Amino acid sequence: DAGITQSPRYKITETGRQVTLMCHQTWSHSYMFWYRQDLGHGLRLIYYSAAADITDKGEVPDGYVVSRSKTENFPLTLESATRSQTSVYFCASSVRGQGESPLHFGNGTRLTVT
Amino acid sequence: QKEVEQDPGPLSVPEGAIVSLNCTYSNSAFQYFMWYRQYSRKGPELLMYTYSSGNKEDGRFTAQVDKSSKYISLFIRDSQPSDSATYLCAPRGGSEKLVFGKGTKLTVNP
């Protein structure tokens, strides 16, 4: 099925552990994005990528690492998880940059850091 | 002042009601205005997209932008229980920066 898939859907990890959230899209969209959604803050951009091997910081990049070796994949790594990174993480893709074309979101990964 | 302000609600209305969802923004550079709809436990999906001031209608939905007062509205006519979701406004400026409002949670009761 075409679309954008995030895995896992739910993840519980401990403080200090490294965790990677996966994102895969089948549309061959150039742009991919990682957002986090928290009560009281709404959606905030963590990192985005305009193409394979091109990534850039968003509003809240500290503590996160991304890579994009292939157009279709855009994993997000929390190098040493903290409780403040407990959140719902959404991956999105689009044909063009933010707002120039619709963002297509995955269904999110709910991460709990204990 | 936050760039985008949106009343989080929750907003509860009876089926068939006209719903008005609103956002205000502070950045006069915003030119493109989007509304995303997010169902529970799902990712947001684009609902409406407008450029500059004026109205845009799509079925039961009307998006309205008043740039002079920096006010964005989404109207839902003949609301249905299936419209129950969180609605996010998202203006964008020429710098390619897209800013999301915090969202308004709407419940339409049968």
Largest interchain contact: A-B, 20 and 21 residues
Distance between the termini of chain A: 34 Å
Structural class given helices, strands, pairing of chain A? mainly beta
- What gyration radius of chain B follows from the Cα positions, in whole Å? 13 Å
Oligomer: heterodimer
Record field, number of beta strands of chain B: 10
Low-pLDDT runs of 5+ residues of chain B are none
Average of the residue pLDDT scores of chain A? 94
Q: What's the main sheet of chain B like?
A: 5 strands, antiparallel
Rg of chain A over CA atoms, rounded to whole Å, is 13 Å
Shape descriptor of chain B: globular
What structural category do the secondary elements of chain B indicate? mainly beta
Count helical runs of chain A: 0
Mean pLDDT of chain B: 92
Helix content of chain A: under 10%
Shape of chain A: globular
The SSE string of chain B, one letter per element, is: EEEEEEEEEE
- Report the portion of residues of chain A in β strands: over 45%
* Sheet with most strands of chain A: 7 strands, mixed
Strand content of chain B: over 45%
Number of helices of chain B: 0
How would you describe the overall organization of this protein?
The complex is a heterodimer of chains A (114) and B (110). In chain A, the strands form 2 sheets. In chain A, strands 2, 4, 5, 6, 9, 10 and 11 form a 7-stranded mixed sheet that branches. A 4-stranded antiparallel sheet of chain A has the order 1-3-8-7, with no helix packed on it. Chain A has strands at residues 4-7, 10-13, 19-25, 31-38, 42-51, 54-57, 64-66, 76-78, 87-94, 104-105, 109-113. Chain A is built from no helices and 11 strands. The N and C termini of chain A lie far apart (34 Å). In chain A, a hairpin with a 2-residue loop joins strand 5 (42-51) and strand 6 (54-57). In chain A, 0% of the residues lie in helices and 51% in strands. Chain A is globular, with a radius of gyration of 13 Å. Chain A is mainly β and 114 residues long. With 110 residues, chain B is mainly beta. Chain B contains no helices and 10 strands. Chain B has strands at residues 4-6, 11-14, 19-25, 30-38, 45-51, 54-58, 61-66, 71-76, 85-93, 104-109. In chain B, the strands form 2 sheets. Chain B has a 5-stranded antiparallel sheet with strand order 1-3-8-7-6, with no helix packed on it. In chain B, strands 2-10-9-4-5 form a 5-stranded mixed sheet, with no helix packed on it. In chain B, strand 6 and strand 7 form a beta hairpin. Chain B is globular and about 40 Å long. Chain B starts with a strand and ends with a strand. The model of chain B has no long low-confidence stretch (mean pLDDT 92). Chains A and B meet through strand 5 and strand 10 of A and strand 4, strand 5 and strand 9 of B.
